[in-house]
Amino acid sequence: MSDNDDGPLGQEGFHDEEFDEEFLEEELRQAAGILDPVPDELRQLAVEAYTLHDLDARIAELTFDSLVDAIPVRGSTDVPRMLTFQAGELTVDVEVTGEGLMGQVLPPQPARIEVLSGPQPGAPLTADDMGRFTGDAPPTGPFALRLRAGGEVVVTEWLRA
Questions:
Q1: DSSP β-ladder status, 58-65 and 152-156
Q2: Span 13-37, pLDDT tens digits
Q3: Dihedral of CA 159/156/85/137: which sign?
Q4: Non-local CB neighbours of 109 within 8 Å, separated by 6+ positions
Q5: Residue 83, Cα to own-chain centre: how many angstroms?
Q6: For the segment 1-15, what is each residue's pLDDT rounded down to a tens digit?
Q7: Given CA atoms 62, 64, 68, 69 in this order, what sign does their dihedral have?
Q8: Which end of the chain is less packed: N or C, by CB atoms within 10 Å?
Q9: CA–CA separation, 74 vs 116, rounded Å?
Q10: Is the peptide bond before 107 cis (omega within 30 degrees of 0)?
Q11: Distance between CA atoms of residues 118 and 43, nearest Å
């Protein structure tokens, strides 16, 4: 049947040049999210499975977390959270504040960094030649960092912001 042939009921085929498939897909996703939301347990399994797509990545262990390891200072409010991750010789120091995050890769080297927060693509950051990087958006909910430096991939442990 050609484009100009009538359909099975004598109707001309559907040929709307202005039909927006992406808009329809987004509308259907929103409707499904309202009418049939993904259970929290399934969402968590999906997030955990997503982290496995970098099977060749080394895992950077959390070696310092100021929420656990630091001595609290009386009267201090809104103090930044300090994190240190280590994978072999590579160390990543990160400071998380309400305005965003900043950190440094040690030994100093350029790196591409993604802030992972679930199955969505990570926010891309770039470390300069001194290994320094900043991000304007603070992570919300569970997050991890994926670093690509010196030909290797390193993923930090997942933490709650």
A1: parallel
A2: 555 666 788 888 888 888 888 888 8
A3: negative
A4: 127, 129, 131, 149, 150
A5: 17
A6: 445 555 455 555 555
A7: positive
A8: N
A9: 33
A10: yes
A11: 9
